[in-house]
Amino acid sequence: MSDVMQTILNHKSVRSFSADPLSKKQVQELVTAAQSASTSSFLQAYSIIGVSDPLVKKELSTYAGSQDYVVKNGHFFVFCADFYRHKEMAQNLRADISESIQGTEALLIGTIDASLAAQNLAIAAESMGLGICYIGGLRNNLAGVSASLGIPAHVLPLFGIAVGYPETVHEKKPRLPFASVYHENHYNVDKGTLNAHLEEYDRTIQSYYVNRTENTRNASWTQQTTDKLRVPRRAYMKDFIKQKGWAQH
Amino acid sequence: MSDVMQTILNHKSVRSFSADPLSKKQVQELVTAAQSASTSSFLQAYSIIGVSDPLVKKELSTYAGSQDYVVKNGHFFVFCADFYRHKEMAQNLRADISESIQGTEALLIGTIDASLAAQNLAIAAESMGLGICYIGGLRNNLAGVSASLGIPAHVLPLFGIAVGYPETVHEKKPRLPFASVYHENHYNVDKGTLNAHLEEYDRTIQSYYVNRTENTRNASWTQQTTDKLRVPRRAYMKDFIKQKGWAQH
């Protein structure tokens, strides 16, 4: 198996890093890797904010639910959908692009662009022997995150990635069965097939949770996932996004 | 430089493939790579539809603007944000998760999850010597795409990736300067700095377009990008998404 496939397949989120900072060179290599990803219509509608200041990390950690690894890591990256620079350059050219950049399509473009770049950064980091953890918890309080990072309108922070030298690495978590994620030519809506896959996966996940080295528990994926989704979260999102110039129409 | 970094940094979209199909084993390896990406709260809120049927490819190509490479490739993948399986399993458990999965936050989760998975697939494909091209053009007509692929409510097709054996490979397109995409600790809103970066980048891109081997032209990034954004596109998106059970609130 190639080094690339090995890196991709070995991915495990790391939630415990040493405090050793990444070098400027490492940060530059990681961001350059991120920038090499595809981007919708070559718009490059995203930005990356690297956080090294411990006070800023501390603030972000509070928003994200006080996770230690948002503070103690080698570097923290915040990925944002971004049409700020497009707005500026359109103003320079006396063009009106507000209809485009304030549409729901622009929200998709920015979110997809930022995510493709982020995953390149994640793979690049893991290939350097670093560990990573995505921090969606930043979306608990995007007003706070935006204030901490001085983020203007038309820029939407989406998630963070903590990167650093791993102190503890856990086992790889098994994913849904191939056949329940992959459909051929036609989406398979058959409930019998879906339920058979979910039962198979619940057995896999139960065995993983019982056998893993730390934090063992007895839980099925369908039950724990349904429990998570039973409680609506981040209900402020639509209003916040609109207020910041996104998805007006 | 490691093979992983080399693969990531060498990315170029390929828009001309041989008609040789990927093997079932290749498709399985690529999807397994996709599934290894991080996923928000372990929700795995995405699906992948592989398209091998030439008639379905032809339909998708029509929606995407009649691009040949949507038809002639080794395999075509459509990435979807997906809460269909969550809805089914909640019904089995007699739980109501509709508030969660119909929120704007769920749209972000599904879009981010699908994009992280997609980028893993893209890198994996390129590591196998295959070429890839993202096809955001599917969003020109998501009603058509959904009908062609039999996509139910709570599943949103976002983009495709054409994968195959490259017939022509172009030069790598230079990206925005590092310093205009990467900010440290604080978003830099300074217009003087931004404009200096954009001027530098316009010179880089002009030189790239003039010197590339095919399809040379004289264009600046700020001008061509502003021209693209001057014309609002896919204005139906908000209504379509709502109608399919997304971003109701």
UniProtKB/TrEMBL annotation, chains A, B:
Keywords: Flavoprotein, FMN, NADP, Oxidoreductase. The keyword Oxidoreductase applies. Residues 9-165 form the Nitroreductase domain. Transmembrane segments: none annotated. InterPro entries: Flavin_OxRdtase_Frp, Nitroreductase, Nitroreductase-like. It holds the Pfam family Nitroreductase. SUPFAM superfamilies: FMN-dependent nitroreductase-like. One of its GO terms (molecular function) is oxidoreductase activity. NCBIfam families: PRK10765.1. Belongs to the flavin oxidoreductase frp family. This is FMN reductase (NADPH). It comes from Terribacillus aidingensis.
